[in-house]
Every structure is written in C-alpha cells, then in structure tokens.
C-alpha cells in the first residue's frame, strides 16, 4: 500500500491528488484539540480540508490543504455557467453547515480554484453562519447573475467548458461527507 503523504525537504504532499499541503503549528489545549476533531470530521471539495493533525505536549501540527483567499471581485470574472454552479454549491454548503452545526466554515474567506469552483476556509473560532441573502450578495456583481439566479438560455460552450487541461478536476461532482460515515 502506498503511503498517503510523502514528506521531502520539509514539504508534505498528498499522494492521491498530488497536492502540496501546508503545515501549521498551533498551541495545544483541550478546546483546540476538540475543535480540530470537529473540523477533521468533515471532508469536502468545497472546504479547505485538514488532511492530518498530530497533537504534541505543547503544540498541534496540522497538515491542511493550501489556501490563498481570493478577492471578492474574483467571482465577477467567472464565466456565467461557473458562477451559477458556484452559487448553487455555496447555498447547498450553507444549508449543510446549518444542519450539521459546521460553524468552523468561514464563508467570508473563499478561494476561486482554477476549475472555477470555490473552496472555503476553516477557522478555529466559532463563526455565525451567514444568511442566505449574504451569500447571494457575494454574486451580485456578476454580469449575468444580478438577480442571484443562474442565467437562462445564454450559456455558450465557452461558458460551460472548464479551462483546458483541468477537465478531470472540473468534471468531478462536489461532495461533502463525514469521515465517520466511511469508517469501518
């Protein structure tokens, strides 16, 4: 069996998705450790995931997906079809966050990935979940989504197609799962 993480030159790499991981060191406390367990319990294509964490006596080493927040105007540059899908996914993630008490998602910090999908950051502080209208307002500046709904009938092939060379990532359906649901 291939190891899940490869470590070389102080850099960790997730082998299955071939993604470089960021290593964070945070102070250890019972509250922080419990919070990390809660965040680690979920895995999603729409979140900055914690891939692994190791508690020590005084600190916790966390391996997480890299996250570079995008500017809010980055949403206005998405093709109409991608923006409509991203809005739908944001609203679905917000609904799931309410149902599963996922108050670690920072909906104010997101990253627009090369595929046109969004990734939201996690935080150790409890966040109040935004109202649905706040999520829709993120997309208000998009030229084709002024009403907060997907454009009708004006999708061109260029709008619907992901950037070249990224098709396999873009074709994957978004997912949100709890790790315990797959534990044996």
Question: What key phrases describe this protein's structure?
Answer:
alpha+beta, five-stranded antiparallel β-sheet, single chain, 184 residues
Radius of gyration: 18 Å
Show unreliable segments: 148-171
**Strand order across the largest sheet:** 1-2-3-6-5
- SS elements, strand count: 9
Oligomer classification = single chain
Number of helices: 5
- What fraction, in percent, of the residue positions are helical? 25-40%
Which of globular, elongated, flat, extended, rod-shaped describes the shape?
globular
Strand content: 25-35%
Topology as a string of helices (H) and strands (E):
EEEHEEEHEEHHHE
The major pleated sheet works out as:
5 strands, antiparallel
Spell out the blueprint of helices and strands.
Blueprint: E1 5-8, E2 11-14, E3 19-27, H1 30-40, E4 42-44, E5 50-55, E6 59-64, H2 80-99, E7 105-112, E8 118-122, H3 132-138, H4 157-160, H5 167-171, E9 176-178
Antiparallel strand pairs: 1-2, 2-3, 3-6, 4-9, 5-6, 7-8
Description:
It is a single chain. By secondary structure, the protein is α+β, with helices and mostly antiparallel strands. 26% of the residues lie in helices and 26% in strands. The protein contains five helices and nine strands, in the order βββαβββαββαααβ. It has helices spanning 30-40, 80-99, 132-138, 157-160, 167-171, and strands at 5-8, 11-14, 19-27, 42-44, 50-55, 59-64, 105-112, 118-122, 176-178. Strands 1-2-3-6-5 form a five-stranded antiparallel beta sheet, with helices on one face. Strands 4-9 form a two-stranded antiparallel ribbon. The chain has a two-stranded antiparallel ribbon with strand order 7-8. The longest helix is centred in the middle third of the chain and has 20 residues, at 80-99. The radius of gyration is 18 Å and the shape is globular.
């Amino acid at each position: 069996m291939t190891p899940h993480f490869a470590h070389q030159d102080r850099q960790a790499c997730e082998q299955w998705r071939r993604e470089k991981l960021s290593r964070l060191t945070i102070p250890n406390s019972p509250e922080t450790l419990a919070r990390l367990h809660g965040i680690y319990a979920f895995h999603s294509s729409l979140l900055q995931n914690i891939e692994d964490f190791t508690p020590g006596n005084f600190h916790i080493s966390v391996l997480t997906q890299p996250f570079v927040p995008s500017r809010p105007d980055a949403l206005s540059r998405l093709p109409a079809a991608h923006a409509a899908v991203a809005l739908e996914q944001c609203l679905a993630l917000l609904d799931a966050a309410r149902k599963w008490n996922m108050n670690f998602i920072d909906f104010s910090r997101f990253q627009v990935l090369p595929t046109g999908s969004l990734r939201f950051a996690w935080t150790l502080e409890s966040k109040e979940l935004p109202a649905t209208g706040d999520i829709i307002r993120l997309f208000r500046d998009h030229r084709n989504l002024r009403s907060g709904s997907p454009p009708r009938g004006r999708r061109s092939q260029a709008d619907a197609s992901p950037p070249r060379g990224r098709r396999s990532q873009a074709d994957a359906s978004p997912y949100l799962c709890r790790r315990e649901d797959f534990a044996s």
